[in-house]
Write a structure and sequence with these properties.
Length: about 100
C-alpha cells in the first residue's frame, strides 16, 4: 500500500482527496464552509479495495492539511466520524 499516492484537488468550495487505482478511484470529498471550517462529506473506496486502509490514508492527508493550514474538520461523513472517535490524538482538528 505504500506505493499509493493521495492526490488533492479543490475547485471553489468543493474538494477531494483521491487515489487512482487500475480499477477506479477512491475519494474523500469535502465542502469549504470558511477558511477555518471544512466539512468532510463522503468517503468512497474503489470496488475491490475495501479493508485496505485506503480511507485512512486519505483521512491522514486531510488531517495533515488541516493542521498545516489551520482549519477544523466537521465530520459529517460517517467513516470520518467513526475514525475521529477511534483516534483521540486527532481531536485538535475536529469540530464536533
Amino acid at each position: 500500500m505504500s506505493d499509493l499516492t493521495v492526490m488533492h484537488e479543490e475547485n471553489g468550495s468543493k474538494g477531494r482527496y483521491y487515489i487512482v487505482h487500475p480499477s477506479g478511484e477512491s475519494e474523500m470529498t469535502y465542502s469549504v464552509m470558511s477558511p477555518k471550517m471544512v466539512i468532510a462529506d463522503h468517503t468512497q473506496v474503489a470496488s475491490g479495495h475495501e479493508g485496505e486502509g485506503i480511507g485512512l490514508l486519505m483521512l491522514r492527508e486531510f488531517i495533515a492539511d488541516a493542521r498545516s493550514k489551520g482549519f477544523q474538520i466537521v465530520p459529517l461523513c460517517p467513516f470520518v466520524n467513526a475514525q475521529r472517535r477511534k483516534h483521540p490524538e486527532w481531536a485538535d482538528v475536529f469540530s464536533v
